[in-house]
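Self-study notes.
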Amino acid sequence: MGGCSGPSSTARPASRPGEESMNVSDLATRVRAELEDGCNRAQLPLPRLMLEPGRAIVGPAGVAVYRVLSVKRTGARTFVAVDGGMSDNPRPALYGVRYAPRLIGRASRTPPRPVTVVGRHCEAGDILADEVALPGDVRPGDLLAVPAAGAYHLSMASGYNLVGRPPVVAVSDGIARVLVRRESLEDMSRRDVGI
């Protein structure tokens, strides 16, 4: 039994603080009870039930890291543009997944303020996180981490606007190792056969 990535799914890891995350034991108990009831009513033998939690494990294991390209303040709103977006993570644009980015790589004592983190694609739907709290001194060059981005992040990535897919880096005990290298423009142009 796999997880659904759509908005109606309740069996998912939390993407933002305060959101309820899936309890695998509770889900298994509920599914087993429904299965037993259905089999009893249909007079069928009870099959062996196996649960593959999928996203409940993979989602929290992955963190997307973006570099801030620009910060734009327009009246009461602040937009923080990053070097990724809907090309590497279309989930917010497709079905409203909500993330809570965090500033990493440097400490800030500046109080947080609400910002909208947008992608690099200049599309109305290219919003990674709307009205999230980031330090008021967030600036170009900063790094933002997006927790719980492991599920579907890379598998749904595309070459939208000829932006290559991001790398995948495994980190364990302070040692980083590239598992999938960043896709280059040369990788994408290899498919061109010419006129």
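Second protein, same conventions, sequence then structure:
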Amino acid sequence: MKDVGFGSSKVSGMKVLPFYLLTLLLFMLSGCIEEYEADISEEDTNLLVVEGTICSSGMNTFILSRTAATHSSDLPRMATGAIVSVRGSDGSEYMTQGTNGYYYCMIDSLAPDVDYYLHIETDGEIYESEPQKPLRTEKIADVVGIQNTPESNIDILVTPDVPFDSIKANYYSWTYDETWEVRPDYTTHIYFDIDSMKPLYKDNQFPACGWKDATGQTIMVGASLNYEGQHIRRLKMYNLDRSDERMYYRYSGLIHQRAISKDEYEYEIARRQAGTEMGGLFTPLPSDLPTNIHCLTSHKHVIGFVGCSLNTTEHRFFLNPKDFSIYRPPQKDTRLWFENPSDDDCRRLVRNGLYLCNWQDERWEPGGKLRTAWAYHYQLDVRSKGAYIEEPDFWSYE
């Protein structure tokens, strides 16, 4: 059959079916489609899974586990008791210390002209990753937050520096950490003294603000193939909901950038497809995922990819709510309000763990009342929200 052309009324080498016959054929085919479930064979279970990257100038972490059957309720089993080391073609070796499937080693510096690989001995088998020279990583030129419309979320866009090589494609992976300021629901500068039975001034009863941290759960990857000069510009990392508490006061992100090989990039893309489309007709089985780790003592499959980096670059940025259209849903006043409370009422409120927030005494006016507002500890102390109160070292940066 000749080439098939799309978007025309004729197909070369074939006659066009009448419309009603085509419709009938499509209807019949649609009735034959069933949900596909991947049939994972026994040899695809209990596979060794390796996560980690050989990096210079820092602590290296490698995670070893075993796969479970697709329909099994068992969690992945951590591979404990393994012997794991980073080795170099120059004879260097860095032994790891392991606990519960996590293996650590400190590497001061990697030589740019030496090939490094991961060596693993576990359950009577020997595994090694393919030797590779550590890749240099450019700095991060810029990170910005962009809100396209007042109602849209804030997109975080990253631009690496000019690539070392502008002729060939460049591949990167990114991770990020977050820090943001939080404040209590209410503040108070007074308290009720049950000895004198009156409100007294007391500042700094509770922290004025605090901070929370988080780490992005997704490793982002990108390629420069569609960029001029192989230079990635303003690639979206993640976004922040404009009504998220992270954007209420001040937000800071720390982007980590690492140059990766084309093979590692393709592994990450395939892993994402397997994770988001499991059970689909074209989803790769675990043993079909690309890998650079091989078993030297048998034909057992391995899942994972071990990269090698000469350095990782970082860039910290800040976002302020005044620069964006932030939506803060209206909050109902949840404090407890009492009019003309007696001494016994005030004593009871204090003993029940409430704090005086407001004391409006207008009883000196004809018909005037005493109005008081009380709040619980969790409404006044940001530490009750999971925040810490020691200001981060970088928080004063612009």
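Instructor comment on the second fold: The mean pLDDT is 86.
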